[in-house]
Specification:
The chain has 293 residues and is of the alpha/beta class. It has six helices and twelve strands. It has a single domain, classed as Nitrilase/N-carbamoyl-D-aminoacid amidohydrolase, CATH 3.60.110.
Length: 293
């Protein structure tokens, strides 16, 4: 079995943590009925990414710990349904909350805890604690082992995010999101998949949520096939703005064959020429005063 079914839960949040838990469980069960192997939520599902136009101390108080009943419920559900679940939350942290994704495998085991590294420091997210690394895990699925990594929303703006995940072996990057997915942001996701020869799956909120418009997407990264005399569209799923469960089927055999034969990814890089990318002493008019090392 080579088709990995990725379910994007493009659903609107409720008004309380308890209701988000209830709705999240309901939609995970529906996704399983549709054959999903992996389910992904939009960004910060625990409070619906409701951090703008509200007092900072109020939304900070909505942060929950990793061992909360909310998070644990999705671990138990993953085991019950034999399905991986990527649940998102405003995570309680010693300094300030984190914008976090927790990925459970189909046995209910916690495989990744990833906190958004590139926080949006030009807005309310300046009050969050950024993550400190990118992670890749071997995820056991009905299709066998799949190498999975994660980014969150604004991380896509930085090619280094997906590049590091590729270098760590990622075949699939899960991307929770909460912003308008217009042509330029979609183009970034397409590029991250193409240049790294991997799949990028992004789950956004529907257009009933302020400053969101649906447009969840999956790009499989396979631009060329031997039987075609032209390039192919790597977009295998692009949703409209409506609430719902959207499932993409990722052909893992095709992706792996492509990665073995094509010229992108790590094939012809010149890493010894990229020193300036990690030089934090470079003074540029494009570096903001609040640059975080």
């Amino acid at each position: 079995m080579d088709l990995l079914k990725i379910a994007l839960l493009q659903i609107a949040p409720c008004t309380t943590l308890e209701k988000n838990l209830e709705k999240g469980i309901e939609y995970c069960r529906k996704a399983k009925q549709e054959g999903a192997d992996i389910v992904l939520f939009p960004e910060m599902w625990s409070n619906g990414y409701n951090i703008y136009d509200r007092p900072t101390d109020i939304w900070k108080s909505e942060a929950i710990p990793l061992n909360s009943d909310f998070v644990s419920a999705f671990g138990s559900l993953a085991k019950e349904l034999n399905m991986a679940i990527g649940i998102t939350l405003l995570e309680e942290c010693e300094e300030s909350p984190r914008n976090t994704l927790v990925l459970f495998d189909r046995f209910g085991k916690q495989k990744i805890v990833y906190a958004k590294l590139h926080t949006c420091d030009f807005g309310a997210e300046r009050n969050l604690t950024p993550g400190d690394d990118f992670y890749v895990t071997s995820l056991d699925t009905a299709c066998g082992e799949v190498q999975v990594g994660a980014m969150i929303c604004y991380d896509r703006e930085f090619p280094e995010s997906a590049r590091i995940l590729m270098l760590k072996g990622a075949e699939l990057i899960l991307v929770p999101n909460a912003c308008p997915m217009e042509i330029n942001r979609l183009s970034q996701l397409r590029a991250r998949a193409y240049e790294n020869m991997l799949c990028v799956a992004t789950c956004n909120y529907p257009d009933t949520v302020p400053d969101c418009n649906g447009g969840s997407s999956v790009f499989d990264g396979v631009a060329y096939l031997p039987e075609l005399n032209h390039s192919r569209d790597t977009c295998i799923l692009h949703t409209d703005g409506k609430e719902g469960i959207y499932i993409a089927e990722l052909n893992l055999k095709q992706l792996r064959r492509y990665r073995q034969s094509e010229v992108h990814g790590n094939a012809y890089r010149r890493p010894n020429k990229y020193g300036k990318l990690i030089d934090t002493e470079i003074h540029s008019p494009f570096i903001r005063d609040n640059y975080r090392k």
